[in-house]
């Protein structure tokens, strides 16, 4: 982790060398402060945030394959982004975030309620329907984008890339910090809810309220990442699952590990993306899609062999 | 003591439970029996606040159910249903620890840990304390869930079909543990149970239901009766006493 972090700081179009830094050469220090350090922080926050969002989602809908990208959360957030652009134009970023957040909460809640009503027995159906639902929402988004000539904005924005992160434009990602702390405080409740509604009620929890808190946290984490970085597919899905294999599902125990491995994975993929076509960058969403897709298929196969 | 009076539950226009009354005293193991669709589980769910009733009243320790605070009630009443998600990877110990949540809100004290150990000891599952639930057999898993209810340490315990899909050994062990809770620890234990001979052998009182109504309730010997059971299950029953124990015969095999 430390090695990766250091590598992330030092890799870039402009060579940074430690000796120059120590000599307090102003241009090197400037690059470090304005671009490299914010980039590293953004990667850590986004990686941890999305992984935790996936973890919460998996627990509240009691399904291993649930994550912001398979329950419509991301697509609804993008829908919110387009609506914010069209309806409010260039408003304050806080208002933009609020609109995106509102759409993400509403869209996710709709899906979660739908799942609670239907009670699928087959685990694979949940992400399948979630992805279909997400596609419908994103079709709607694309349609609106066409109408208002925003397709380019939309597509450039949906491909996650940390290259554009600079000091001053990534700070919303810090929302992941309080959201993660809150998630940790609620960890035992989420885990109880993951066993079932009657199980959670039995130990005196208000099940629907726990689910609601979970949806809000997922939406905060996902929409802040979507707004600043873009869509990082599969991250929220694979990190909690891989961690669960070794640490189990007790959230109080696995949440810190999930955050940690989320950071490591995004950091590694980002560095990889920067090195493959150096000095050009391959967007991280492509790198992680390849890796994530493989892991996802592996997980489904493993689930089948268990069933 | 829990008292149910005139409880009813309707889905659409059909009564699932109609005008059911019952008493669950402390120190007594009560079984609810009856054919599928008799409303046993619904009655248990209403008595344990998992399902709202459409009519009637539940009084728990002299206080109507709707006046109980949910978190407070969790320290007095525990309920276990069959609908649990068993795909989550918790260790047995982590599961049992959930039973202490109403008392400790997730921060386990030394005393909580002691109670958790005792509960696992009660069901003799300490040796699998650190195994994950998804690595266990159905019987071991059910023992773990029951240990969790034991750790919750409540006056009232409701179990919905605790013997479902279990082999004979686990069934006997679980019924023994449950009976111990009622008789030695003075708890009111209520189980919905399908195997009538298990009900006859372990319960103190039995409530027999059919089509949403309580047909008969009373001491075990009053309900384990040829006429009563034949009426409820609509097949002929023969009852024999074996070593002071009533055993039901209902296997009508025409080829014998």
Secondary-structure element pattern of chain B, one letter each: EEEHEEHEHHHHEHEHEEHHEE
Q: Give the class-level CATH name of chain A.
A: Mainly Alpha
The CATH class assignment of the largest domain in chain B is Alpha Beta
Beta content of chain A: under 5%
Q: Architecture of chain A in CATH? A: Orthogonal Bundle
Please name the two chains that share the biggest interface, counting residues whose Cβ lies under 8 Å from a Cβ on the partner chain.
Answer: A-B, 27 and 33 residues
CATH domain topology of chain A: ABC transporter involved in vitamin B12 uptake, BtuC
Gyration radius of chain B, in Å:
19 Å
Query: Can you tell me the residue ranges of chain A where pLDDT is under 50 for at least 5 consecutive residues?
Result: none
Major sheet attributes of chain A: none
Percent of residues in helices of chain A: over 70%
Number of helices of chain A: 14
Give the secondary structure arrangement, pairings included.
The complex is a heterodimer of chains A (307) and B (256).
Chain A: H1 2-10, H2 18-22, H3 26-60, H4 73-88, H5 93-118, H6 125-147, H7 151-158, H8 176-185, H9 187-195, H10 197-202, H11 207-228, H12 235-247, H13 251-276, H14 284-306
Chain B: E1 2-11, E2 14-24, E3 29-33, H1 40-47, E4 55-60, E5 63-64, H2 70-73, E6 77-80, H3 92-98, H4 101-104, H5 110-122, H6 138-152, E7 156-160, H7 168-185, E8 188-192, H8 196-202, E9 205-210, E10 213-219, H9 220-223, H10 226-233, E11 238-242, E12 245-249
Parallel strand pairs in B: 3-8, 3-9, 6-7, 7-8
Antiparallel strand pairs in B: 1-2, 1-4, 4-5, 9-10, 11-12
Helix pairs in contact in B: 3-6, 5-6, 6-7
